[in-house]
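ok trying again, last paste got cut off:
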Amino acid sequence: MRYKKLGKTGLSVSIIGFGAWGIGGGAYGPVDDDVSAEALLTAYEKGINFFDTADVYGDGHSEEMIGKALHHVRNSVALATKVGTFPHFGFDMPQDFSPNHIRSSIEHSLRRLRTDHIDLYQLHSPPGELLRQSDRIAETLGAMEALKKEGKVRHTGISTRSPEDGLFAARDLGVEVVQVNFNLIDHRAIENGLLTFCEKAGVGVIARTPFAFGFLTGKYSQGARFYPPDHRSNWPQEQIDCWAEAPHRFASLNADSRRTMSQLALLFCTAHDVVSTAIPGIMKSSEALENISAAALPPLTKEEILRISEIYQRNTFYVGRKSPSSGNSHSQKREAGDNENTASHTLHTALEG
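nice, full thing came through this time. structure:
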């Protein structure tokens, strides 16, 4: 495993982290606590030291699983969790980012994680409107800062709904860390300059959805069906089929190697120096081992990264959005990041752990 500093926080994090939404409950299909515990321990033993969860994942069960499995190695891991979103099914997210809720929630998270401090405490997909309302966001960030002064939180950040919100948070709010969607089929963090800005400013970047909700693993085919409580059952079949077909567009990149699609997806994220860690969802030890092995593979060449960019430019992977090369890039970014009424925006900003 390789490690990077997370922005200016001083935290040294594994370039492959552990996304813990799936182990909280049925959001990614059936889950078994014993299997989850084994996956957590395997990940730690093989070099993963960054574990990302949220109080809403399984209504706290994900945090409980991490606390139970890793409390004996607490000083050797970096724990990241999130606050502000309540349990829900669908894309309408009940939320509360008030200082009172933040102060109450941190106590519950600390108890479930069996720790006296959180290494990275993040606002969980706050609306873009909140980020841009100076008085309200100042109160919210002030509450987060107070937790730092009390020693309950070491560092703070925002897991943003879109790269546009991520850029605003990094540039205008001065956050330490942003967590954003970034993967083979979603380059918006490159297109809008977020990665470039964060690299220059020393803002930490966490790449979530590196597998695009599991579809970039190549394990799903067109016609795949999902059922509640799997959150992918919310999406139209047309979008599911589009994502299921996406790995075939990149298959030529693995033709002369033994890389899996999952490993290619992770290598793409970690090829960008400013990305400190990518956090694929992990539910089994076998998944942890496959992901971890990507860190030992040769990095992507400049030629491979260029080919990925060309494939991305020529194709569309979100229903309702044109391919990046087919029109005005500025209007496309607004469609993907700002238009609250488009299906593509809803799908882009869906949560991922």
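cool. The chain has one domain: 3-348. Residues 37 and 69 are 6 Å apart (CA to CA).
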